[in-house]
Amino acid sequence: MRDxxxxxxxxxxxxxxxxxxxxxxxxxxxxxxxxxELLAPSGIQVLxxxxxxxxxxxxxxxxxxxxxxxxxxxxxxxxxREQFLDRQVPLLLFLLRGGEGLRVLAEAPGLASWLNGSExxxxxxxxxxxxxxxxxxxxxxxxxxxxxLAAYEAGELPETFxxxxxxxxxxxxxxxx
Amino acid sequence: xxxxxxxxxKPLSGGDPLHxxxxxxxGRRLASLMxxxxxxxxxxxxxxxxxxxxxxxxxxxxxxxxxxxDIALDQFMNMRQLSAANLLWALGSILFGAITQSRNxxxxxxxxxxxxxxxxxxxxxxxxxxxxxxxxxxxREMKRKSxxxxxxTLLDGLEKCPEEQARIAVRTILSLKDEVELAFVxxxxxxxxxxxxxxxTELRVFPIRPVPVLEEGGSRWKEGRxxxxxxFSRRMGKDVDxxxxxxLLETAAISSGGLPRTFLQxxxxxxxxxxxxxxxxxxxxxxxxxxRDQADSLRRLLRDGDMRAMQEADxxxxxxxxxxxxxxxxxxxxxxxxxVDGKIIVRMHPLLRAWxx
Lengths: 177, 357
Known about the structure:
The complex is a heterodimer of chains A (177) and B (357). Chain A has 10 helices and 5 strands; from the N terminus they run H-E-H-E-H-E-H-E-H-H-E-H-H-H-H. The longest helix of chain A is centred in the N-terminal third of the chain and has 14 residues, at 26-39. By secondary structure, chain A is of the alpha/beta class. Chain B is 47% helix and 10% strand. The relative contact order of chain B is 0.13. At the A-B interface, helix 1, helix 4, helix 6 and helix 10 of A face helix 9, helix 10, helix 11 and helix 14 of B.
């Protein structure tokens, strides 16, 4: 399964130009800032910033951006994002879960598309109800995730689109290696 | 392994050796239609479908028949603050600079026109009239000096404007259609629905849809999957043997819904998870994690009622979905259109379908 630290590490190291960290409250945001400073690639400067103008001249720094007005910053970033295309180290934007920044992001399809897959919500990753999802899987397929994967890997299940998706789900539920 | 080489967010310029022709040859087809004078063209498609790359391809294809300029407005302008004045200034100054440089034309233009074309970007609130006149005067002078000159302007980035600004920008661009062949990317909200009927009488819509990757998405699904695998191979170069990753590439292609950006994001993120686990190549588990991240991102964009609306419309033409919702779902690529046997069919994004099972 994915975990929050692994996802944050990947985000800081994948070299995507812009990533998103979704936090629940300011205490958690502070913890995440500290954790990301520790997870930064070696030899890379970490910069805490509050505005995009501070970020632009720093393409080689891991930037942790915590703007005071998250909605306005998302709009500004959407309009200027091509200027950040060649960043060698990500700019990580922090947005409050359920807040204005995420609301505005949902109305900015271009930026949202850039961020797809580069968003980390640590609280969500730490709170997956594996038991409930496993029961639902069992109810749907008649097999536990482990049994499903064993059957899949033994070639007993046809390679249909639906089966590929169910295999994906079985792995996410912790079945198999 | 440098997974950054996949660069999902980076469109290719025309003639880039990394470019892979699409199964339906979209950029080349657009160029053919422009050569036939059938424009102006409004290019629309979901985010990440490859619009920018195909525009650059079309511009390259037009070279020879046209003096073709591919202008990515979003690379130097804030698209949320675009006005008619600074759009006209950008078009005029880029065209003027490019043509005087490459054709070595000595244009006889009044000083005030020249200074508008070579001066600073205007403030957003400035009146567009002088910039429009300067553009027209410059283009006509170019044609006077070079009687065989045909100009094509292809514009990228307007889809990043808020809807009303994009509408004003398109109106502004259309005012130039008698002088230059035009193609420009627009947000889908400008070309769908009855309120756009007036606009649609003045242009042709050129859709750039996801490539088909599922049998239900059209007869060319094998070509669609191969196209995506070829993009991966071209970008990763000799670092990776694509055969070693063939099953993952297949699954990523299916899961992407045929959107090249999503496909590349999935493979890049799978590579990132492999790096977390200190593996050189990603495994199926790594790709599953990447798929989960993508699905989470897509789910965050959903509003109440979206899933039900997409389920009910799945496999239909999608017209029964309320127009505002349909535009939003199509723009975000949550709902994907494919042409199947001459008909438009909509499907929910495969990663949302997987979550919904």
